[in-house]
Design goal:
The chain has two domains: 120 residues, no CATH class; 63 residues, no CATH class. The protein is built from nine helices and two strands.
Amino acid sequence: MVQEYQPRRFFRHAPNRLLERYFAKHKALAEVDFGALTETQVEPIYQAWLKLSDDARKEMEQDFQDIDELATEGGSKAILDEARWHGEDLAEQFASLTGFHEHAFWTFLERPKYWQGALAFHHADVVPFSYWRKRKNVPRKPASVDALSIRQLEQNLSNYFHKMQGRGENCKVDLYEEPGVKGLDEAPIVTRVHRTQGTGQRR
């Protein structure tokens, strides 16, 4: 069962040294002496967090929610798979870290190029089975992943959602190649779609 994201719980599980790096990059929480805190002393961090503006917290919370989502056994596997597809084996690196939150947070900071792919595949893995729609009449041939085909898929998705739900006028399709999958007959299609204009993002 996926655990709901909560800032205080996240700060308790995320290593202080990685939190310090993250906040320093965002020029936030400079008043907190992370080195003087134990890993379970989260109240000074949480209270300083509450003093940030709503806009600042909202931007950083999206990152924390994504890190929290990948801070599981399945999330770590998704990261390892994505890294291997890029030609890097992170197994030894992960063995030197402590816990799933450190795996995810370290990857977010140190290997950002793996992040969106791992997040997309993990998100697909945890979607309830009842949400999937099987298609048995898909031709057994490699997927068309050229630029023209991707643009056509974007347009078709945009037209579908606009007609059926009154939204989705601007869709962007990101292509991720799952390790070991060569054709549409070997695995379900996972498409990440988000809006290119307006507020928010759809996955």
